[in-house]
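So, who can interpret the following?
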Amino acid sequence: MLATTAGAATAAPAPRSCSFVCVPDPVVLDGLRLAGNKIGLMAGNPTLRTSLSNLLRQADDALTKGPWTVVDKERVPPSGDKHDYLSLAPYYWPSQPKTPENPQGCPYVDRDGQVNPEMKNVPDKAERLVAFNSIYQLSLAWYYTGKAEYAQRAALDLRTWFLDAATKMNPNLNFAQGIPCKTDGRGIGIIEFSYTFTQVLDAARILEAGAPGWTKADGKAFRGWSADFLAWLRTSKNGTDEAKATNNHGTFYDLLAAATASYVGRRDLAREIVRDSGKARIDHQIAADGGQPEESTRTRTYHYHTFNLVALTRLAQLGKHLGVDLWSYRNPQGGSIFAAVDHLLPAATGAAPWPLPDIHFIQYAALDSVHAAADAGDRKARAAVGRIPVPPGGDLFPVRPAAEQLDDVSTT
């Protein structure tokens, strides 16, 4: 795919039939791996069949829900436009009693790891999570089964959230994670899109492989939306603030920017971001023993160690498509993605307790990143995968082989 000028999108690839086995061209996922899975399923591979059964259970549920839109909310963003995404900072709470003179209980104070239930009064964040996951699951369900209803529903959900004039989201996150009485929105709020939007990019690429209900015009329009979003991400104050973050926020910013750039055809920019993330992220974030100092001061240290690894492993998978080997990168202290994964293995397998405080330890949270590292050649990870508990919905990694955040704590 040819690189384009800033803000421009490339032409849609010609649709291809997936009636038997075709190789899609995702951004993070490996298209050859997906095609190989399809052949494995035809041959009766039991691991793949179990994983697909779990995925289809979720996709079938997604067929009956949605579509979702940012214009559903009652609260109007500061812009006055309901098409702007809106969310509240999850860990900020009122510090004073709510009175007629101070109806919001300001000022708000940070209680790290404790989600303020008031944020649920603004539904964009929760609906975004369900919508984007559904789009991803439905597109994969179509790819593996060929059933048109999965693709058609994924296309409807995509058009409703991103493209239809009456319901679409504006391509910005100006008002994400605002704090009442303090700020309308923050760069920190970008993380709400930072890996789930990359799932949507993969879904769109899968649908471009000839899915019913997703047209060339749809693909062109979504690339245009994504190009506009990338421009906002790289030039807005919120975007440039988030790019400077030194913890998981910075890693996820790199993932979001690089994946979006790759999707819209700016592969040189995507390659540059992934290549530079070695020094910009791994050098600072991973100690020689694989610990992550930036994530070690939180109240949910295990969660944030695994969370940052979702971004790092997805960046490494994206880099593979771009000719950048982030898996092999070692910082001057000897830290690497492999070292960070291996650091989690005793706790992830139950062999030893997690050595840091965590107010809500969820053992299976590391599973996907361990899977990804095992696939990339980490022998310790490969030996450990079968000893890590699976999430309640089952182990989906075999059929959607890219790391996800398995313990979303932002809405609980």
